[in-house]
Each structure stands twice: as C-alpha cells, then as structure tokens.
C-alpha cells in the first residue's frame, strides 16, 4: 500500500467511526443497530483483494474496539477474517465488475461477520451474545449494509485508487496474460 492509500484508509475509517458513533448507534431496532465498520472491512476486501482487505479490516477493527464494551481484539480478529474472506472470494470470482453483485457480496459478508462476532463473543465467555439478540442484530446489520454498501464500496475504491494490481492477481483483469 502506498502512503496516500494509508492516509485515505485512516480517513475513511475515522469518518466511519464518527458516523457509527454519532448516527448509527442511535438507530436502534429491536435493540440492535447497523454496523458500518464491519462493512468497511468487507468492502475493502471486495475493492482491493484479500491482503489489503485484511489490513483495512484490522484497522477498522482496532477503531471499532475503541467504542465497544467487549474484549479488546474481538473486532480486529473478526474484521480481518471478513476483509480477507471477501477479498479471497472476489479474487476467485470471474473478473467482472458488476457493482450490484459486489455490493450484495459485501452485505452477505457483513452478515456473516456479525454472526462470527457473536460466536467469538460467546466463546470468550460473554453472556447474551447468542439467541434472539443475535437474530435481531443480523437483520439490522444486514438491512443497514444494504443501504450503506454502495457508498462504502465507492469510498474503499477511492482509498485504493492508484494502487498497483488492485486484486493482487498475476493475470490482468479482463484479458489474458499474453
């Protein structure tokens, strides 16, 4: 990653964290709220591939852990796996840039990450992480991701704009290597 990509990533994560705390935490449905930070990790993997998705996921997870009351490190671990997994999925898909498919994949990754977060929380001994609260959180995070996935995906494309070899693939996108 270039220095300008790092600066843009920190900027997007900071804006996402402020938006999460100032706006989304007040949007509560069934005791849950949308989560833009896990969406940052998913969209980074979709925009830039598995390695940069993991880096962005770790960065977003560290920022998210500053404002939650769970063991420190749970968000970075979850978000790294979400960013890497989404990037790996994107790298293995056909080399098509279908924005709606990419957004839908980010939404699904955010939902899967939310479930994984709840499972890890339960494994670390936090009571109340699994049950109806998890179902409500999955629904609310998924609906929030549907609304926020396109702007977040565009933001992460901007973060990684100008980076060499966007997905880290050996074959150029859209054609053969010859």
What does this structure look like?
This protein is mostly helical and 178 residues long. It has one domain. It contains 6 helices and no strands. Helix 1 (3-22) packs antiparallel against helix 6 and helix 2 packs across helix 6 (132-159). The two termini are 27 Å apart.
What descriptive keywords fit this protein?
178 residues; mainly alpha; 6 helices; 0% strand; globular
The stretches of 5 or more residues where confidence is low (pLDDT under 50) are 165-172
Helix amount: 55-70%
| pLDDT averaged over residues | 86
Beta fraction of the residues? under 5%
Sheet having the most strands: none
Give the domain tally: 1
Rg estimate, integer Å: 16 Å
Distance between the termini: 27 Å
| SSE run | HHHHHH
**DSSP summary, beta strand count:** 0
User: Which quaternary structure do these chains form?
Assistant: single chain
- Which secondary-structure class do the elements indicate? mainly alpha
- Silhouette: globular
Number of helices: 6
Give a brief outline of the structure.
This protein is mainly alpha-helical and 178 residues long. 68% of the residues lie in helices and 0% in strands.
């Amino acid at each position: 990653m270039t220095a300008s990509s790092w600066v843009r990533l920190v900027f997007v994560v900071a804006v996402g964290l402020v938006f999460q705390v100032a706006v989304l935490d007040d949007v509560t449905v069934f005791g849950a709220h949308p989560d833009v930070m896990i969406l940052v990790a998913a969209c980074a993997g979709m925009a830039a591939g598995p390695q940069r998705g993991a880096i962005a996921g770790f960065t977003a997870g560290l920022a998210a852990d500053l404002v939650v009351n769970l063991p420190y490190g749970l968000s970075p671990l979850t978000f790294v796996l979400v960013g890497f997994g989404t990037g790996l999925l994107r790298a293995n898909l056909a080399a098509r840039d279908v924005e709606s498919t990419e957004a839908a994949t980010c939404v699904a990754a955010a939902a899967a990450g939310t479930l994984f977060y709840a499972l890890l929380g339960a494994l670390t001994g936090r009571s109340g992480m699994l049950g109806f609260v998890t179902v409500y959180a999955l629904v609310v995070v998924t609906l929030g991701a549907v609304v926020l996935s396109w702007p977040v995906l565009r933001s992460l494309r901007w973060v990684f704009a100008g980076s060499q070899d966007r997905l880290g693939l050996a074959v150029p996108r859209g054609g053969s290597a010859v």
